[in-house]
């Protein structure tokens, strides 16, 4: 019986990781996407998550996905959350936070 070895395709995650590691410059703020709980604490991380960053000129806006029913709370806490993000990063990156209400965050 002849057994042929088949090459297994790499996972999408491993492909993305290998490309990401080869990029010459990465945004310094990317760590907030991976470590959101450390940035804002367990409560805010249980009802929100960073979604994307948009840049317009020198202005960067952080978009947060927020669990339905907590949008107003996060809107009021946005200046505090922005402070926590900047403290975590060690400098001011974002000029604004925009909220996206979501069932999944």
Can you describe this structure in just a few lines?
The protein is α+β, with helices and mostly antiparallel strands. 43% of the residues lie in helices and 24% in strands.
> How many individual β-strands?
3
N-end to C-end Cα span: 51 Å
Q: Helical segment tally?
A: 5
| SSE string, helices as H and strands as E | HHHHEEHE
Rg (C-alpha, Å): 18 Å
- Report low-confidence residues grouped into runs of 5 or more: none
Shape: globular
Q: Strand order within the widest sheet?
A: 1-2-3
Structural class: alpha+beta
Could you report the average pLDDT, rounded to the nearest whole number? 87
Instruction: Let me know the largest β-sheet.
Output: 3 strands, mixed
**Helix share, percent:** 40-55%
Description:
The structure is a single chain. With 105 residues, this protein is an alpha+beta fold. The protein has a domain at 45-105. Helices cover 43% and strands 24% of the residues. It has five helices and three strands; from the N terminus they run H-H-H-H-E-E-H-E. A three-stranded mixed beta sheet has the order 1-2-3. The longest helix is centred in the C-terminal third of the chain and has 19 residues, at 71-89. The protein is globular and about 50 Å long.
């Amino acid at each position: 019986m002849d057994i042929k070895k088949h090459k297994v395709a790499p996972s999408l995650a491993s492909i993305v990781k290998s490309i990401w590691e080869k990029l010459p410059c990465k945004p310094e703020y990317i760590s907030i996407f991976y470590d959101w709980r450390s940035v804002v604490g367990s409560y805010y991380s249980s009802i929100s998550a960073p979604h994307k960053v948009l840049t317009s000129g020198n202005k960067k806006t952080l978009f947060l996905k927020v669990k339905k029913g907590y949008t107003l709370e996060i809107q009021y806490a946005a200046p505090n959350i922005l402070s926590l993000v900047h403290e975590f990063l060690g400098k001011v990156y974002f000029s604004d936070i925009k909220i996206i209400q979501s069932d999944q965050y």
